[in-house]
Amino acid sequence: MLLVERLVELACLAPSVHNTQPWRWHAVGDRLFLHADRSRQLVHEDPSGRNLVISCGAALDHLRFAARALGLTADITRFPDGPRSDLIAVVDLRHGLPSPTAAEDIALLRQRCTDRRRFTSWPVHALAREVLVAAARRRGALAVAVTEPGQRIELELLSRRAHHLRSLNRAALEEQASWVGPGRPTDGIPSSVLPDQVGPAPTRFGPGTLTEERAVVESTDGMIVLGGRDDDRAGWLRTGEALSSLWLRATRDGLSVVPLSLPVEVPSVRGELTAALEEPNVVPHILLRIGWQAIGRSELPRTPRRPVADVLVVGEDAGTSSRGTSSAV
């Protein structure tokens, strides 16, 4: 496997909405081009492309993380052809020294996953939340830890309202169903990663076949909101990068992360969510539940990934311009 193929394979372990993996890569020499794949956009659930761009941002940050582990520096130019272009980023790779924790870092990329099983009642302490918030902010996104009980209850109620409103949108439900369950060997969400029991709170995907070993408990999980100053593609990209950075740090610390995009996807709920945060300079892009899974829990199956050959073209000019601001990360 070529080095660039290994980098892209690791980058594509990133989380994406419904595991759609909505990206394409082109490699020309030491330069990589990341494109949004519009054929994988959820046109009913994500008409603006917010979740698509966030997903691409997560893959971009996974690439940066993998490059550093393998002794490369990634100089990233974001939206070189402007924010409306599907050319998300250009990455220039420069050789350096391998990370002393390379094996551990690569293992971390493979270990990260979405575990939707119930959290334990162990509290997520303030210091742990602060570390995750800092990891997100280093990628240029805004991150807010929700700590006030009243505010947390309000966000839970908004999440339930979003579930109810989405249940009335038949086209969106059918689109979601097409990505969940059997019949998708390289993408989507298999039933094997969805718990077979659901609690009193609504769940987006319903029950699956993964054995839920824990009874319902009073959860003490944390919640972090990622966003930006605007609801635009530049901000969404930074949020995706922040999501990756936060999630990898959480995985290293033994914490579990479950993304909640539905309250942001439903327009009427998104407005109420913005008001509930009481952060006038923060436009929410995605919510995250943070918590502890039980020690000794069964191994979680991994969601599938598309073959590298399906997402990477090597040696063809991707036709990008040289405009944009480059920053070494």
TrEMBL record:
Family annotation (InterPro entries): Nitroreductase-like, Nitroreductase/BluB
UniProt cross-references to Gene3D superfamilies, sorted A to Z: NADH Oxidase (3.40.109.10)
MF term (GO), any: oxidoreductase activity
SUPFAM superfamilies per the UniProt record, alphabetical: FMN-dependent nitroreductase-like
Organism domain of life: Bacteria
Region Disordered, annotated ranges: 179-206
Protein name: NAD(P)H nitroreductase
Taxonomic lineage of the native organism: Bacteria, Bacillati, Actinomycetota, Actinomycetes, Propionibacteriales
